């Protein structure tokens, strides 16, 4: 019984790490795309309209805040300042998305635990080795 519980725990941890890796890869790809767009905007600087620049700034603030904050010191400078800025942006955005995944998983797990007393399938999903069948016909869900 003990090995089965530890095996389930290892499987859940591997699944959580898989999700964190997927989020990190998504963050890396988003940062890569935004850096590519920024590079293209740098080359179109004389013909660039203000609306495009504002849209790009909002997208980087929402989707890749590291790239936005790295430009705060020199807002009129190039969007992609060099290879080091490019690599720092990619790495930190991937790390930011992985942390975001962990926070979301922790919040959703806490929510599932809080709602578990109301929902038997959730209890069965959280604790598959301890599922208790409610056979009493008098059982009613708790009213909030």
Overall 3D shape: elongated
Q: Gap between N and C termini, in Å?
A: 36 Å
Give the rounded overall mean pLDDT. 75
Order of helices and strands: HHHHH
Tell me about the biggest sheet?
none
- Beta-strand percentage? under 5%
Parts with pLDDT < 50 across at least 5 consecutive residues: none
Quickly count the domains: 1
Q: Which value, in Å, is the CA radius of gyration? A: 23 Å
What do you see in this structure?
The chain is mainly alpha-helical and 144 residues long. The chain has one domain. It contains 5 helices and no strands. It has helices spanning 2-43, 50-63, 65-70, 83-115, 120-126. The longest helix has 42 residues, at 2-43. It is elongated, with a radius of gyration of 23 Å. The mean pLDDT is 75.
Brief summary of the model shown:
The protein has 144 residues and is mainly alpha-helical.
Comma- or semicolon-separated keywords:
mainly alpha, elongated, 144 residues, single chain, 5 helices
How is this fold's topology laid out?
Elements lengths: L1 H42 L6 H14 L1 H6 L12 H33 L4 H7 L18
Helix pairs in contact: 1-2, 1-4
